[in-house]
Write a structure and sequence with these properties.
5-stranded antiparallel sheet; single chain; 45% helix; 3 domains; alpha+beta
Length: 474
């Protein structure tokens, strides 16, 4: 029997087929009752449906308010049952899909149509502050794993009738609810339609997190850089929607996606708009400096100490030579050892319980670094360089953007060990060529720098005062 088969007028036959589809799951409930001298059956999943509402709004009215044999589903929906969202269905596929989403199916004998009632009752995590993008000043709330809660938090900030929301199901097995939100008249209609079309035509087994969608929407661009911006902050998503971007919400994920996203977006923080424009501009410049340090500092040290000692001041060169005396490894091996150890400590700190994770990462770094220097495995300068590099990586606001920078750091260390500063120069040029060839949903990744737009420079690196910002007329 196929799922798209329509209901039979025999209630016993419908019960038999639904039970065969659901199997012997212990949480699947079939409750048969008699209402108005007519047999009825309720189907729902224990734990997915609010049992108190089932009892008060469905079962009790069916027992107390029905007294006629001429009972119909429209009469139940409009006059008898105390329910809100409900719809009629005539096939098993739609009915089972609603049951698996926390709905209740009501079937009556001698009727080939059913009534699906939305009564979700699973536990939800309460709204808390952002764990990945915290701010000192600004809203202290973040998305949860509930789709409708997340879209409501954005709508509460953008009270505009032009906000549009399109919801669909993606995933052959999970049938995950996906919502696309945009500002009509501001967002590019072609990009909106293209996004919705790609999501509807996406053939994946399941979607458990927003990253599933990001990889499928990459347009076959081979890169380690994120082409979509993700955030768990409602204010960041609301700001992106007002700029004409498209937001994607995934049920079960506390992170929303913004598209298109460019290079500069990942070096901006929500707090930039809650502080003085002077302070925000200085902090943004600092982030770009830290980006360069995080990616190139160990590589530059390896290149200078291996090939270009004449570029180092004499006093500093003598100090470095004295510190490296007795170290058995070249600078490249030193750098790789320390970087790998730090990455291990970073991951260990993230995966361990919060009460001990930070202590392990901090104490481990100090103890291992000091022990390595005393054992003449690495030089003290290398420990300092790696420490500064590690601290600089935490200045980057976006964790997903910091990951490719950490990967490139190892690549540049290898290039510096083989070709010195000249190799680093070529490597940096190749990186810019790669970034210039990337597009995020049709928008150049280095925009507004490479595809220069003077109108967008006021919020690229420096943040100009709000009074100088040109507001949209539409």
């Amino acid at each position: 029997m196929k799922l798209h088969t329509k209901f039979s007028r025999q209630l016993c036959r419908n019960i038999e087929l639904i039970c065969s589809f659901m199997g012997n799951s212990s949480d699947f409930v079939v409750r048969e009752i008699t209402t108005g001298h007519k047999h009825a059956a309720l189907f729902y999943l224990d734990g997915m449906t609010d049992m108190q509402k089932v009892q008060d709004n469905v079962i009790r009215p069916l027992h107390d308010r029905v007294s006629s044999d001429e009972i119909t589903l429209p009469l139940l929906k409009n006059a008898i049952l105390d329910i809100g969202e409900a719809s009629f269905t005539q096939n098993f596929e739609n009915a089972l899909e609603q049951i698996l989403s926390g709905g209740l199916l009501l079937l009556l004998d001698d009727m080939d149509e059913g009534l699906v009632i939305s009564l979700p009752g699973w536990e939800e995590r309460s709204i808390s502050d952002s764990k990945t993008q915290p701010v000192v000043r600004g809203p202290q709330e973040a998305f949860t794993e509930t789709l409708r809660t997340n879209t409501t938090m954005v709508r509460r900030r953008v009270k505009d009738t032009r906000v549009r929301l399109t919801t669909m199901k993606v995933g052959e097995k999970t049938k995950t609810d996906i919502s696309v939100m945009y500002l009509y008249g501001v967002a590019d209609p072609k990009k909106v339609q293209d996004m919705i079309s790609k999501l509807k035509n996406m053939h994946v087994e399941g979607v458990l997190e927003s990253e599933y969608l990001e990889e499928c929407l990459h347009d076959k661009q081979l890169t380690i850089f994120p082409l979509f911006y993700n955030s768990d902050r409602p204010d960041s998503i609301a700001a992106g929607i007002m700029e004409g971007k498209i937001a994607i919400f995934v049920d079960g994920s506390p992170f929303a996606i913004l598209a298109p996203a460019v290079f500069a977006d990942f070096l901006q923080s929500a707090e930039d708009y809650y502080q003085s424009f002077v302070y925000s501009s200085i902090i943004r410049i600092l982030r770009y400096i830290c980006l360069a340090i995080c990616m190139l500092a160990p590589a530059i040290y390896v290149a200078l100490t291996t090939f270009h000692q004449d570029m180092i001041p004499t006093v500093l060169l003598l100090s470095l030579s004295a510190q490296r005396e007795g170290v058995p490894f070249p600078a490249f091996v030193e750098a790789m050892i320390m970087e790998v150890v730090f990455e291990i400590l970073r991951e260990a700190g993230l995966r361990m319980p919060r009460t001990v994770g930070q202590a392990v990462s901090i104490v481990g770094s100090i103890v291992i670094g000091q022990a390595a220097v005393e054992a003449n495995i690495v030089s003290a300068v290398m420990v300092i360089v790696v420490a500064i590099t590690a601290i600089s990586s935490f200045v980057i606001p976006s964790y997903t953007f910091a990951i490719p920078i950490r990967i490139l750091r190892f690549a540049f260390i290898g290039i510096a060990a083989m070709f010195g500063v000249y190799g680093l120069t070529v490597g940096i040029l190749m990186l810019f060529v790669h970034l210039n060839g990337l597009h995020s949903f049709g928008v150049p990744y280095l925009s507004p720098f490479a595809n220069y737009k003077s109108s967008e420079q006021r919020d690229a690196i420096l943040r100009f005062p709000y009074r100088t910002k040109k507001h949209r007329k539409n």
